[in-house]
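Long-time lurker, first post. I've been practising inverse folding by hand and with some scripts of my own, and I keep getting stuck on stretches where the structure tokens seem ambiguous. Below is the full token string for one chain I'm working on. Before anyone asks, I'm not after the true native sequence, just a reasonable design that respects the backbone. If someone could post their per-position residues I'd love to compare against what I wrote down in my notebook.
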């Protein structure tokens, strides 16, 4: 079994108190667990993919422009990684096991080379972390399921704006997608 961590959208706009579309404290509370998961993968010789939302200034054609305020705009600080994840990425960014991929839709698979990169590396299990549990993490998990990947959700390394949305998404991923829910302490590589 070969695992890869997907660190989804852990940026200033989604996490920082002054972020454009922030989950605030629930997202800030998972900062250490996010870094722990990436470090565990690194130490085990695994892969870490930073899947980061990117939008264009003034793009009124993107479907999200009708649903959310502008966020994660190309070239802005809102796209900077937040907390210890930023330090992890900066330390390992030159490695052939750490990747940054821009994504333009909820799912990390939509319009990206992620599936190709994973299959080239013979990855069969995805460890999902990041925000928001009920949007980008959930949509990524659905696509992963449909592509035949095993899914592990690190419960203390995902967050949403409300606990109700968070719990709904966790239960959905467990009961409908067969995802394994585990803590960062329980996670093994």
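-- Answer (accepted) --
I ran through it position by position. Result:
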């Amino acid at each position: 079994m070969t695992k890869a961590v997907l660190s989804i959208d852990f940026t200033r706009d989604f996490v920082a108190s002054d972020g454009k579309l922030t989950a605030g404290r629930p997202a800030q509370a998972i900062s250490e667990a996010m870094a722990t998961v990436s470090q565990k993968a690194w130490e085990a010789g695994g892969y870490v993919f930073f899947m980061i939302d990117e939008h264009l200034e003034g793009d009124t054609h993107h479907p999200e422009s009708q649903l959310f305020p502008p966020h994660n705009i190309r070239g802005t600080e809102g796209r900077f990684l937040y907390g210890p994840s930023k330090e992890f990425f900066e330390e390992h960014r030159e490695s052939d096991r750490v990747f940054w991929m821009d994504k333009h839709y909820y799912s990390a698979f939509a319009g990206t080379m992620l599936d190709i990169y994973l299959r080239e590396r013979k990855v069969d299990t995805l460890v999902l972390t990041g925000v928001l549990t009920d949007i980008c993490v959930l949509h990524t998990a659905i696509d992963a399921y449909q592509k035949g990947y095993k899914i592990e959700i690190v419960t203390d390394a995902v967050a949403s704006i409300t606990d109700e949305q968070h719990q709904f998404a966790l239960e959905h991923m467990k009961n409908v997608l067969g995802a394994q829910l585990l803590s960062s302490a329980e996670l093994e590589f």
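A couple of notes from the structure itself: DSSP finds seven helices and six strands in the chain. The longest strand covers residues 150-159. Happy to go over any region you disagree with.
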